[in-house]
Amino acid sequence: MFDSIRLSARPSKSAVLVVGVFASDSKQEGAKPSLDSSTAKVVAGAGVGDVVRAALGRAEFDGAMGSAAEAFSAKARVLIVGLGKPSSLTTENLRFIGGVIGRKLAGAKATAATIELAPALKSTGISTINGGSAVGEGLGLIGWVCDEFKGTVTRKKDGKGKFQSTRTKLEVYSSDAKFGAGVERGLGLAVSANFCRTLSQTPPNIATTSYMAQQARALAKKVGLKFSIFEGAALERENFTGLINVGKASENKPCLVRLEYSPRGSKNARPLVLVGKTMTYDTGGLSLKINNGMVGMKRDKDGGCAVLGAMHAIATVIKPNKPVVALLSIAENSISDEAYRPDDVITYRNGVTVEVTNTDAEGRLVLADALCWACEKEEPSAIIDLATLTGGVVVALGSTYAGMFCENDALRARVEAASKASGERVWRLPMHQEYRDLMKSPVADILNSNPNRKAHPIQGAAFLSYFVDEKIPWCHLDIAGVHVADSNKGAFIDGPTGWGTRLLAELVDA
Ligand code: BES
Ligand code: MN
Ligand code: ZN
Predict the structure, then answer these.
(1) In percent, how much of the chain has pLDDT > 70?
(2) Closest ligand 1 atom, CA of 393?
(3) Does residue 27 surpass a pLDDT of 70?
(4) Cα(386) to centroid of ligand 3, in Å?
(5) Model pTM?
(6) Is the CB of 302 under 6 A from ligand 1?
(7) 3-class secondary-structure state, position 405
(8) Which one of 11, 33, 47, 322 counts the least CB within 10 Å of its CB?
(9) % pLDDT > 90, the chain
(10) Phi, psi (5° rounding) for residue 272?
(11) Cβ of residue 300 lying under 6 Å from some atom of ligand 1
């Protein structure tokens, strides 16, 4: 919708004024919502009372959360947004409202907006900075466009043969500096999440394994992260057997990418390690996906994309004083005469042997390499992995919650707090020795999928647990249901959500 959105230090004359209105408390039928006194002052100060009254007078506008009404006069353009009841307003609502504002501004072809929601926030429990951040996130998220893959049917070229942009640049201003700082933070987080979304959207013939590594390298250069990569002989040397085997059948060779954010003075601190499944395409391998199950598997890289987005946010917005390491297991699960097969047995660098029973349970195989490496080499304070791991989690939780596996109370509390702050919901699923026993193999130590079809998402987590040192706090997030949206409302449109980028950023910020 927008080319870019930035916070401006000064209001623009042509700006659309955005104010918030709570729903009327009155039980009387047809009672109209009205401005709270702080917002009324701002409106009077701007001399646009009559235009605001015109918008408030719209029959259809009742102040319900996410509703909106516009009014224009020769001297002013006003957008009023409904905030619902003061006591029930949440940051999640404000993110949604940010999306509503963005849609309206784009519809009105606005290039500047003065957002004065801070006065209304005073009658809620939400801090000005958190409220601003949520609105900034919503605005930035709805601003996302990815029309790179649109051709001459949907886009016009200019005289020089270049595609013309139909998008506008948007400047945002708030007279409340704290709210403005929050908006700027939120816009920054959205830029990071949008980077993740564009990668998710990029088709698998373009977003190959080397393309993903190149994206990580370019990110590192741009925002100041250390970059290293294991590929070819280095994969063999380090015995990253999951990547080698899963990636064998594709002409696009597998690799493991490592990024490091290490602020000054943090040399002796243990890093948080973020691990991402980055399957550039998942055909299922020889256990080929059937019945259209393959469509959309370009997004099987979204765990890694979320981790890249988080590293972007960490380096550009959060800037914590503690180190963070990212490990991306990058491969394409394809088929050829060189493909790994059901019945193969592979041996990991920690000595665990795995009988492959299903080549479509490939994510856990490549994550295992990164988890082994993290435990052995990174001295992590904690490990969090993100993966589009199982269709089972989609069946269980739909697109509403990601599946969370975390047996460490302190880390789980941090993930839950970050979930609350970001609005990216997690639901805890259980771990038990019985699930770990499900993964035992008659041939090798463990198998990669128990054919009895029990508890699939938990099987995935149980498998991974064999590659994590028990003493290290670890959280596995199965994002197969939440990385893509099928509806178009609030801050999101149907397509990639960037799920995880903002949660991880909030976790590092706390
Ligand atoms: N990438 C898929 C999981 C997936 C499914 C992601 C649907 C997004 C939407 C994963 O590699 C997979 O194929 N999982 C199998 C595991 C099974 C073979 C044990 C599944 O869930 O069916
Ligand atoms: Mn698969
Ligand atoms: Zn997969």
Answers:
(1) 99
(2) 21
(3) no
(4) 12
(5) 0.98
(6) no
(7) strand
(8) 47
(9) 95
(10) -80, 130
(11) yes
The rounded distance, in Å, linking the Cα atoms of 190 and 186 is: 6
Name the closest-CA residue to atom 17, ligand 1. Answer: 361
Taking the C-alpha atoms of residue 242 and residue 366, their distance in angstroms, rounded to an integer, is 5
Q: Which of 16-25, 156-165, 471-480 has the highest mean pLDDT?
A: 471-480
Which atom of ligand 1 approaches the CA of 279 most closely? 1
The residues assigned a catalytic role are 289, 364
Please choose from 335, 360, 365, 499 the residue to mutate so as to test ligand 1's pocket, defined by most ligand atoms within 8 A of CB. Answer: 360
Is residue 29's pLDDT more than 80? no
For the ranges 59-63, 394-398, 439-443, the lowest mean pLDDT is seen at: 59-63
| DSSP helix/strand/coil, 472 | coil
**What is the average pLDDT value for the chain, to the nearest integer?**
96
Q: Which domains does the chain have, with CATH numbers?
A: 2-149+163-188 (3.40.220.10), 202-509 (3.40.630.10)
Looking at the chain, how many residues does it have?
Answer: 510
Which residue's C-alpha comes closest to atom 7 of ligand 1?
Answer: 391
Give the Å distance between the CA of 209 and the centre of ligand 2: 16
177-201 vs 209-223: helix axis angle to the nearest 10? 160
User: Is it the case that residue 93 has pLDDT exceeding 90?
Assistant: yes
pLDDT at 60: 87
Does residue 480 line the site of ligand 1, with CB under 6 A? Answer: yes
Which of 481, 317, 457 minimizes the C-alpha distance to 402? 481
Q: Is 116 in the pocket of ligand 1 (CB under 6 A)?
A: no
CA of 279 to the centre of ligand 3 (A): 6
Both tokens assigned to 191: 């830029």
